[in-house]
Design a protein that fits this description.
Keywords: Signal. By secondary structure, the protein is mainly beta. The chain has five helices and 25 strands. It is elongated and about 110 Å long.
């Protein structure tokens, strides 16, 4: 007869519980100085059969003021169809629960903790006054994750924690559940933004269901990098830290100022966009049509240069060289500040007006046909003696024409020194 793993776990849990410590509010293992305060955002994925589906985000905001810890979490659906928020207040030293508030599309819950848990349940269109007796010492479930980060985690650390949870379908007899830290081991977490981080992999067992939650907690700053939990049907919810504090570029992009520079001036840039191939020598390629003008309708773009753009390019240059982390995405506001025009004739001409003094980046891209002539070795001409001896040899070279598709990628900087200036610019790709 086969016995499921879940059944085995439930059989041995009573014994396992006595083999480990029970952490309650005020326990010496709790060290709130390990808490990482501030905001953090997590991307929520549902994963099944290696398929990752974005489901939304949640933002944590942790503050400590006086004797209180305030932990707020706001959840938002990927399609903005629903939201929910939770706010918990706990004692800053002991982690004893003080209050809990929930708000969602279907109502709200407001709880105050003391010798009894009192409050109101406003879900389901009705208001229910609450008085719940929850014996023993316990933690508010909403702060349990950050509670884990305060513990003296090390390989093999184990503990049992009681959590209070009230939902709209809960009864007073089922509001406190045991959660068991069953395994802690070292783990290397890899971030696309900041690379490798030495972490703890913390597996937590929910006693009542047999579900196992996995947390990846940084060894140094105690941030939670990732959380995994089963949601049924073979699907796992994975929440990954978006690293709001990752700011590799110190300079800030000023959208308003950049828009002003391309709209409120009196200067003009007139230019021509073309590609040109250098003529080869000897037997190398020789371009027949050397000037390849950008076709009529080609888009030419301009944006004011800035400390932000220069730093962004330099940071990504270093990242590409090291090949260890992903490149830093550009500020999305940059796209709104790009001014565009088009080539208006067959000679590659374009114009920009209303520009203020300053340095600008001009760029364009277009395809063209690269036509060329070349020489190739066709054989050898020999001078032969009647006896059959070769007296001399001369190589034979023939000429031919060819063509290939090419793309011009052009970028240059232009400086307008005073308002009202008119500049002529050659935007060229020289090969």
């Amino acid at each position: 007869m086969q016995i499921s793993l879940k059944a085995i776990l439930l059989l041995i849990l009573p014994l396992a519980s006595f083999a480990q410590k029970t952490v309650v509010p005020g326990h010496p293992d709790i060290n709130t100085s390990r808490l990482k305060t501030g905001k953090s955002m997590y991307r929520i994925y549902y994963v099944k059969n290696q398929q990752w589906e974005k489901k939304g985000t949640f933002v944590n905001d942790l503050t400590i003021s006086g004797n209180e810890i305030k932990f707020a979490t706001d959840y938002t659906d990927e399609k903005d169809k629903w939201f929910k928020s939770r706010v918990s207040v706990a004692d800053a030293k002991t982690f004893s629960p003080v209050s809990y508030k929930y708000k969602g599309l279907k109502g709200s819950i407001d709880l105050t903790f003391g010798s009894q848990v009192t409050g109101q349940d406003l879900t389901g269109g009705k208001t229910h006054a609450l008085k719940i007796k929850a014996p023993g010492k316990y933690f508010d479930f909403n702060v349990s994750e950050i509670l884990f980060t305060t513990l003296p985690l090390e390989a093999g650390y184990k503990a049992m924690i009681q959590e209070f949870y009230y939902g709209t379908s809960a009864s007073p007899d089922s509001v406190v559940s045991n959660y068991i830290i069953k395994d802690v081991k070292s783990y290397i977490f890899y971030s696309n933004k900041t690379g490798k981080h030495e972490s703890w992999l913390v597996n937590v067992l929910e006693e009542s269901t047999g579900a196992v939650y996995a947390y990846i907690i940084d060894k140094k700053d105690r941030r939670i990098w990732q959380r995994e939990m089963p949601v049924g049907g073979g699907t796992v919810e994975i929440c990954v830290d978006e690293e709001l504090d990752y700011q590799p570029i110190a300079s800030k992009f000023d959208k308003a100022e950049n828009l002003r520079k391309t709209e409120n001036g009196n200067s003009v840039i007139m230019g021509v966009a073309f590609a040109r191939d250098h003529a080869g020598t000897g037997r190398q390629l020789v371009n027949i049509n050397r000037a390849q003008f950008a076709p009529k309708g080609t888009v030419v773009s301009i944006i004011p240069n800035s400390a932000y753009l220069e730093e962004w390019k330099e940071v990504n240059r270093k990242i590409r060289k090291r090949k260890k982390v992903s490149e830093v995405p550009i500020d999305p506001n940059v796209a709104d500040c790009i001014k565009r025009t088009t080539v208006y004739d067959d000679k590659g001409h374009f114009e920009f007006t209303n520009l203020m003094p300053g340095e600008y980046i001009l760029f364009t891209s277009f395809g063209y046909t690269h036509r060329y002539s070349y020489s190739y070795y066709a054989g050898t001409s020999n001078l032969v003696h009647p006896s059959g001896a070769v007296l001399s040899s001369t190589p034979i070279y023939n000429s031919a024409n060819g063509s290939s598709g090419a793309t011009a990628e052009i970028e240059t900087t232009v400086t307008i020194r005073k308002d009202g200036d008119k500049l002529d610019v050659k935007l060229k790709d020289v090969r």
